[in-house]
Amino acid sequence: TTIGEKELDKYISKINELKPDIIVFTGDLFDENINLQDDSIKIIKDEFNKLEASLYKYAIYGDDDYTKKEKYEAILNETGFILLDNVSKLIYNKSSIPIVLVGINKYNNPDYSIITNPIDGIDINSYYKIVLDHEPDNIDKYINNNMDLVLTAHSLGGLIRIPYVGGLFNIEGAKKYNMKYQKVNNVKVYNSFGLGTASIKLRFANIPSINLYRLYVD
Q: How far apart are CA 160 and CA 64, in angstroms?
């Protein structure tokens, strides 16, 4: 949310060095307390257009993105991102067996049955299933559904982290599940601590980060 152009460009370059097949953005491009001007939005568009994925680029809403949804959607539309607004997708890559990607938008009356319902008549419950959900604590509403992996954000790691204590500023929506990794009902949950700041413009013992996930076929 509060990151400079040079820093953003550095992270974009690092992502491209990793040669990802799929890029996912789990929300909060915007900060509710910052009104981005046109020149800043242009910088974001230019940088997001540099992102290279061999397959797709997906995004979901963060809470602050949803309050500025027109601007957010315009940026995604102009930079090749597919917005998953309570939608499930089948993703194929050199195989007839897909993975399932589910994008949750808790701010728009979600129907969590999309996690298990067929897609175009295809039963999705035997396939590897990834759920994108901005707020980690929201997973309690659907964790008993059939899924393998949940990718979240929102917490920013509590901004200031103390060894053996964790984050000091654990915000609503990330009070229960705010570790980088945890298992919930045998489901792997990874929480991206992201790049910027929020209520206080400071991070301590909390290095900004991007995350790389590799999926292996047994």
A: 21
pTM: 0.94
Nearest by Cα to 130 from 147, 113, 146: 147
d(CA 165, CA 142): 28
Please, which pLDDT band fits residue 12 given cuts at 50, 70 and 90?
very high
d(CA 29, CA 135) in angstroms, rounded, equals 14
Residue 121: how many CA atoms within 13 Å on its side-chain side? 0
In this structure, which amino acid lies at residue 169?
A: F
d(CA 81, CA 69): 14
Tell me the pLDDT tens digit for each residue of 71-80: 999 999 999 9
Vertex 153: Cα angle to 189 and 217 (nearest 5): 40
Close Cβ partners of 31 (under 8 Å, ≥ 6 residues apart) = 1, 2, 64, 196, 198
172: how many CB neighbours lie within 10 A of its CB?
Answer: 9
How many helices (H) and strands (E) in the chain? Answer: 4, 11
| First-last CA distance in the chain | 38
Question: Which residues, listed in sequence order, are joined to residue 150 by a DSSP beta bridge?
Answer: 131, 189
